[in-house]
Design goal:
Elements (H helix, E strand, L loop, with lengths): L7 H27 L2 H27 L2 H4 L8 H17 L2 H7 L13 H22 L14 H5 L4 H4 L4 H7 L17 H4 L2 H8 E3 L12 H6 L13 E4 L19 H14 L4 E3 L6 E2 L2 E2 L4 H15 L5 E8 L9 E3 L2 E3 L2 E6 L2 E2 L2 E2 L8 H18 L7 E4 L10 E9 L4 H20 L3
Parallel strand pairs: 1-12, 2-3, 2-6, 6-13, 9-12
Antiparallel strand pairs: 4-5, 7-8, 9-13, 10-11
Length: 445
């Protein structure tokens, strides 16, 4: 193969030509978007051919290997040039999201009659490409917060309890919100009433952080329905009821080391398992390592590996009704989130929900039939935490993907502290978390 000398002048010309191709593609797409449907159909093939020829010329000029790049047999002459251009025209016609994007923006049936099957294929491929981009950019469950977002009592409702602010006793409030848990222990935080929670803006500002990869509509955040859902379980069962596992088992805390190998999310899971068993629940703790591949840390497919494993566990133990994926968050290194709970330094917890949708709509291949139940489960725990353990929880985090929360209605991904917390702070968090889980799972009034 002939070698090419890449001088500064040649590199500059290639960069200018590349910029021209990109600009031309963008302008052509904008022009296509502005055309009426029939005009767009007439001009489509000519525009694709023009763009394909331009790209073929750029490939030849830049690399001198257009036919080889396209998978041809080598050679010279018009036959080879035509082969490259024909393949590129075909590619743009069937696959390219650059050209097809604007054609597919119109609603199905815009031109009348049945939708062209190729139109559907184009739409599906474009959606998958966009969703793959979200997965690449936003696939992990870390919040990456830049500031402390622990819900203090002031953030939760000021100096007085919400019930008092509404002029109600706790008994009256319990009657007005029948799904709301009233535990026979002192209320040290804030009890919210239905009138407050039905205010969508109030709800979202006080209780949720919504990542840019997703949305949460008013219809989805139906508090009345969420608080009416009953998640109670019978204690004393002989069959497994709760499954605890860790998609990212290698997440560690600040004091992890040779002398403290239990300072991981698995160590935290061990303690939560013990506490829930003491409360009368049958618990399975899966300590599988889904983020280690051949001894190397690799989280690219951890959710897929975890899904395979826990699906197998559920097939063997169909009685499991609660699934908890315990993580720890990743935050700015100088951010240390800690509060006092029962006189102990305690890392905060954050309930995390995957919405299975981007701002453009549902992710069809990541459907979650239990999304509303997942949202209700985390909100009920959040409200109990606000009442009995103020300052213990962060705002519920909503992100675009599914995070394996689709297997049971009572599924939760829980972030326990962050990499800047000590193991003791994270372990201490399991005590109030176990209490909160027990409130919701026992349905105490």
């Amino acid at each position: 193969m002939r070698r090419r000398k890449w001088s500064a002048d040649r590199i500059l010309r290639v960069m200018m030509l590349t910029s021209g191709v990109i600009l031309g593609t963008a302008l052509m797409g904008k022009y296509m978007a502005e055309q009426r449907p029939k005009e767009r159909i007439v001009q489509r093939d000519a525009q694709k051919e023009w763009l394909a020829k331009g790209l073929a010329s750029w490939i030849r000029y830049s690399f001198g290997a257009g036919e080889q790049w396209m998978g041809g047999n080598g050679g010279e002459g018009e036959r080879q040039q035509g082969s490259v251009e024909e393949k590129l025209v075909s590619w743009f016609g069937k696959w390219s999201p650059l050209v097809c994007f604007y054609e597919r923006r119109q609603e199905r049936g815009e031109a009348g009659g049945e939708t062209d099957p190729s139109y559907t294929r184009y739409m599906d491929r474009q959606r998958v490409m966009k969703e793959s981009a979200y997965l690449y950019l936003f696939g992990d469950e870390n919040s990456g917060v830049e500031k402390e977002d622990i819900m203090t009592e002031g953030e939760q409702g000021g100096d007085t309890l919400a019930a008092q602010g509404a002029g109600m006793t706790l008994e009256e409030m319990a009657q007005s919100t029948p799904a709301y848990h009233i535990r026979r222990q002192p209320v040290t935080g804030t009890k919210y009433v239905m009138e407050q929670l039905l205010d969508y803006d109030f709800l979202m500002q006080r209780f949720y952080s919504v990542h840019s990869s997703t949305t949460a509509s008013r219809e989805e955040m139906d508090v009345k329905k969420m608080l009416e859902m009953d998640f109670s379980l019978e204690k004393g069962s002989e069959e497994p009821q709760i499954l605890i596992y860790h998609t990212h088992s290698q997440e560690t805390y600040a004091d992890y080391g040779p002398g403290k190998t239990d300072a991981t999310v698995v160590g935290v899971g061990n303690y939560l398992t013990e506490l829930l068993r003491q409360k009368g629940y049958q618990v399975i703790h899966d300590t599988g390592q889904y983020d280690l591949i051949n001894g190397q840390l690799d989280r690219n497919h951890a959710y897929n590996y975890a899904l395979d494993s826990i699906t197998g566990i559920l097939q063997k133990n169909p009685s499991v009704q609660v699934i908890l994926d315990i993580h720890r968050d990743g935050v700015r290194e100088d951010l240390h989130m800690v509060s006092q709970v029962n006189g102990k330094n305690t890392a905060p917890v954050m309930f995390f929900n995957g919405m299975s949708q981007t701002p453009e709509g549902p992710i069809e291949y990541l459907q979650n039939p239990y999304k509303q139940e997942n949202l209700a489960f985390s909100l009920q725990m959040q409200l109990d935490a606000a009442a009995y353990y103020p300052g213990f929880t962060r705002k519920i985090y909503l992100k675009g993907l599914r995070y394996n929360l689709h297997l049971r209605p009572r599924s939760a991904l829980i972030e326990v502290g962050a990499q800047t917390n000590t193991y003791e702070e994270a372990r201490n968090a399991m005590e109030p978390l176990a209490e909160i889980l027990d409130m919701v799972l026992s349905g105490e009034d």
